[in-house]
Amino acid sequence: MGFWIVLPITLCAVSFIGCWVVYGLALSFSHVCSLSNWEYRNSCLTNETEICCTSYKVPTISSSGTNFPENSLFSATINAGSFLFMVFCIFHHAHILDKSSINSLLSKFAMVFGCIAAIGAFVAGNCNPAELVLLHYLGAALSFVCVCFYTILLTSLTSKCVLTGLERFLYPIRIILTSLQVIVTILYCIFFVQKDYYYKHISAIFEWTLSVNLEVFELSYAVEFYFFSSAMLSVLLSKRDEEKPLIMS
Length: 249
Prior knowledge:
Layout: H1 6-28, H2 61-64, H3 70-99, H4 104-126, H5 133-160, H6 167-192, H7 197-219, H8 222-226
C-alpha cells in the first residue's frame, strides 16, 4: 500500500512533460507558431527572416509532433502515455472489484472506454498526420470521445464507491474536471472544423487545455492508488465470490 501512487503520478508526468517538450522543440525549429501568436497568413516568402505563420503551423498537439526531430519524442510520449493509461484503467477496475464489487458493471464499462481511448491515442501517436491523416484523426477523435465517457463514468463511481474515505472532497473536484473535459471537447470540435485561422488557433488552445485537464484528473487518483495493493489484481484473474466475476466474462 502506498507504492502504486507512482502510477498516476508517472502517467501525468510523462504526458505533461513529454507533450510540452515536443511543443518546445517544434517551436524552436519554427515547425509551429507560438500559442500566444494570433497572426496567420495564407502563404510565406522563401526569403523571410521572421517567423511566418500559416495554417500548417497552428500549434496543435498533433502538428507539434509532425516533423523531425520532435516526431520521435512525440510518438514515444504517446506510446508511453497510452500504455500507462491502459494500466491505470485496468488497475482502477481491479480496485473497484475488490472494494465495491456491486459497482463492477459500471466499472467495467469505464475500463472499456478507457482502454479504447488508450488505443485511439496510440493510433494517433503512431500515424503521422503529414502522411496518414485519416488514421491519425480517427484515432484522435476516438480518444477524445472515449476520454469524455471515461471521466464521466469514473466521476460517477467516485460518488458510489468508498475507496479512500475522501470522496466528499474528490467528487466535487472531479465533477468540475469532468464538466470541463466534456464542454471543452465539444467546443474544440466546433472550432477545429472551421476554416478561419483565428478559430483554428482557438481549437489548438482548447486541445492543450483538454490535455492538461485530463492530466489533473488522472493526478487526483493518486489518492485512490495510495490505498491500492498488488493483491487486488488477483480479482482480475479469478473469482473470489459470485459478486466478483472474471474481467473477460
